[in-house]
Write a structure and sequence with these properties.
about 140 residues, mainly alpha
Amino acid sequence: MDTQALPEPTQDERNMALLAHVLMIVTGFIGPLVIYLVKRESRFVSFHALQAVFWQLAYFLVMMVGMALWFFFIFSLAAGGKSQGPPAAFILSFFAFWLLMMGAWVLTLVLGIVYGIKASKGEWAAYPVIGGWARRLAGV
């Protein structure tokens, strides 16, 4: 992307973009969505806020699909019959699901911090894949 053609963001725009990424960690998609709706005339803020919103929606979808698969797996184990306690597969699947959730949360934390710092420096840094969607929607 040619950053020479893009306008230099103001300090207020940098702060709002930083806030969109940091609020993503705490409020999910609500904080970045509010920032997007309030500051959508700024392409810089819109771009960063939309990235945070899209990431949170993708995160939510991955968690819901993971939970549905885990429930399906657990119920298929329970349908097996004669149970004298939790089977090892239940414990291992619970640990795997917990590990997926924690890994995704840590990734969200890292993305929020790293891209928040980049936004505060005025960089037009884009998340992989999601950044292209946000770029098109923000008109960048």
